């Protein structure tokens, strides 16, 4: 039997994802029509004999309860949310809830960072680990990055013949390796012995230093620095490289990029989730597009490519939408154009308006390039060009232009804006 853990962090994290996460926790933000971590759940349930998924984070349980109930009724595995009392780090929660993870003696358990998106090769990862589990405690999924981008990730030196991780540095300041940690792992239960030893050493230090680090709980443990780094070179960590699509979801730009890839994956795995435009009275579809069945779209609208339209959205005549995410109950008035943008829940775009952002994709000329996750502002304090984002319940008047702008929730705009943040 197998289990999986999804790490989702909590309300203090993911600041780069605002304002999209102001009214919905980032793990529940819809990408290709599904909450972000539902893609993780679907990857887990596709693994034979996986019986339980534990979602660990420090969001108040009230923010996730409805989602957990929905997932539980939709899928036949046990799905639970375990709330940390405070941020315990990427390994502190695993150790804190170790009895829950160990119960029923699973053969191994997966750990997935909630903020990655991928064509998760979990079965392959488990098979690889199982064949070597006598000696190894864990297998890390790795992928190739460019030299420059590798510095933003956990970097691993991997022995090509044995696949052992001989050296691990989390976000190094100078080049170590282009093999990076994908935040996708499989562990044997024996890992808890090592975590326990590390935990005890850290506890001693914590109390010796008169609670030295007051910002962190005594139980705070980082999987990367406290577990992976010391285990590297002992023969107990292996890495399996994937060439499947993989990305992080840190910024709104990366949500548009992930949306496109998840829609692409539906072609093989869930063609029923893609709109075809073949039925009479349907609007023109340029693949790939996902439209929630409850959305109302005029037959003269042209939608796609790479668009997701949420529940109860209304789209009027002559609208054109491309490379965008339209969240639930949004309204797009007649003849408006939406390009490279995210339109928040309940937002309203008037007629003949133009809402446009600047796309950012991994550099196609650099092999293995990943999405950049730039800060909102550049060094002169100006907004970096980005996709346009309307927070929830924003209203855009008719005949206005919004370019590369971010509008916080509940704003009523009265004019056109360009490269601005409306607070
Ligand atoms: N439960 C819980 N508690 N989850 C946490 C906590 C915590 O205190 N802190 C972070 N997480 C979750 C985040 O929500 C995220 O899903 C994941 O753990 C990783 O957290 P970050 O701290 O944001 O790390 P990162 O994304 O910058 O880097 C990690 O992932 C990269 C791949 O995406 C590292 O593991 C890197 O080595 C790796 O390359
Ligand atoms: P920076 O703070 O920009 O460095 O982001 P980060 O790298 O710390 O992002 P991280 O990967 O830690 O963010 C991941 C988690 O934060 C997500 O899984 C969400 O659980 C959560 N999150 C992000 N932003 C918000 C927010 O504004 N509100 C709430 N409620 N949760 C958020």
TrEMBL record:
Superkingdom in the source lineage: Eukaryota
Gene3D superfamilies xrefs: Hexapeptide repeat proteins (2.160.10.10), Spore Coat Polysaccharide Biosynthesis Protein SpsA, Chain A (3.90.550.10)
Record-linked InterPro entries: GMPPB_C, Hexapep_transf_CS, Mannose-1P_guanyltransferase, NTP_transferase_dom, Nucleotide-diphossugar_trans
Domain Mannose-1-phosphate guanyltransferase C-terminal: 285-421
Every Nucleotidyl transferase domain range: 3-201
Pfam family of the protein (one): GMPPB_C
PANTHER family: SUGAR-1-PHOSPHATE GUANYL TRANSFERASE
Family, per entry: Belongs to the transferase hexapeptide repeat family.
Name used for this protein in its record: Nucleotidyl transferase domain-containing protein
Organism: Hypothenemus hampei (Coffee berry borer)
